[in-house]
Amino acid sequence: MPPKKRGKSEDERQVKKFEEIIGYEEEKEELRRLCDAMNNREKYSALGVDMPRALLLYGEPGVGKTLMAETLIEESGRICFSCKKDRADGAFTDKIRETFKNAEENQPSIVFLDDMDKFAQDNLREDSNKEEFAVIQSCLEDMKGKDVFTVATANDIFMIPRSLLREGRFGRQIKVRMPCRAAAVKIIEHFLKNKKTSEDLTAEFAAEVSAGRSCAYLENVVNEAGLYAGYENRSTISRKDFIFAALRVSTQCLPSEITNEKEKRKICYHEAGHAVAAALLGEKVALLSAKRYGDVGGVCCSFDDEEVLSFEKFKNIVVVSLAGKASAEIVYGVPDFGAGWDIKKASRLTERCVEELALKGFSRIYWKRYYSEKQPIGRIDRIADSVSEILSEFYEETVALITKNRNLLDKVADALYEREFLVWDDVRAIMNIA
Question: Which residue range(s) make up the domain with 372?
Fold first, then answer.
């Protein structure tokens, strides 16, 4: 396997290269420290410290893990030997061994294991005996005392056995998160830099519509918006182009008109319910649509730029998710058959809080996430009962909230019916929220 050559950079170029990654200041600083350790071993040896041997970058798809790994490799100036699963299991384990062998023979060097969580796709975290991971562990042990650094990326850290996540292996980890809103503005500014845009399309507006999404998503939406403008033979990309593109990329479906007026009205009430509940609870939604996308009638894109760090945040997300169902049923008095995805989202989040945060006591914790023992009989049923109990309680509160603010629900639903698209600023104006 031929090595991937990297030219060693001057210090000025190193800083510029890391600064080309927009946002992620803490992550970049950690990468700079690792790069400095690799490039100045004598300085650190004089201090009597052990050199870092490996790094795992993990997070959702599209957030820039591979970009960060490649930047670290570039700035280290080392020869890089990459390994990504591209063959059957038996042949692939040979490739892993060959990659580390080539790195050992070309010190100082770097081994890059891209998408390491996919190396053994059927692996569960508690099963640390998968051959691919066992081979990596063995190779890491063989690299002790050698000038070989290993960097890996993964989407799902739970697919990697704990034995590989210990100190001395991949104990050093960086979780690469979705860009915050401020970073999203800068990222979109970068992607819009060489594109002609109308005055109504700003990076700030685009970030509002795309909050909590990955860098790859933002790049894709900007390009898709340009395709819409070009097809319409316009010389600039407009706000409407960006909205169409955001919905197209988010749903992965083409929009179509809903010709049945009663169905469209019901969909508008459903989507308006999400927006009204969000506004009343101090949350936000990014975008509402009254069009059909594939099998889905209507869309509400929510803000996902915050992690669930409190009971209040958890409850708000669940209530907003259930508000579409509550609104349609309040207005029409019959079950809402368009709430399946919302219920699934609320259920998954509630289940996670019951299992991992002991929301209903420790007897509901899903211990198999942490230990290999089988689940005691009845524990799954108790978890399901707890989830149902919480969702029922929150749904009653959701119905009460929407019923009390029916006038606001009607206003937002009417506006969505007429305009077919609403962004958060539209919702705020309709509800007279500052």
Answer: 261-431
Tell me how far apart the terminal alpha carbons of the chain are, to the nearest angstrom. 61
Give the pLDDT confidence of 271-290 residue by residue, as tens digits. Answer: 999 999 999 999 999 999 99
Tens-digit pLDDT profile for residues 120-160? 765 444 444 588 899 999 999 999 999 999 999 999 998 89
Strand, helix or coil for residue 288: strand
Domain count, the chain: 3
Q: What angle do CA 68, 69, 72 make, to 5 degrees?
A: 85
Backbone angles phi, psi at 112, to 5 degrees: -115, 115
Helix (H, G, I), strand (E, B) or coil at 410: helix
What's the Cα-to-Cα distance from 324 to each of 256, 302, 329, rounded to whole Å? 21, 13, 9
Q: Is residue 3 assigned to a domain?
A: no
Q: Give the domain CATH number at 375.
A: 1.20.58.760
Q: Are residues 167 and 185 in the same domain?
A: no
CA separation (Å) from 313 to 87, 235, 341, 377?
Answer: 44, 43, 20, 32
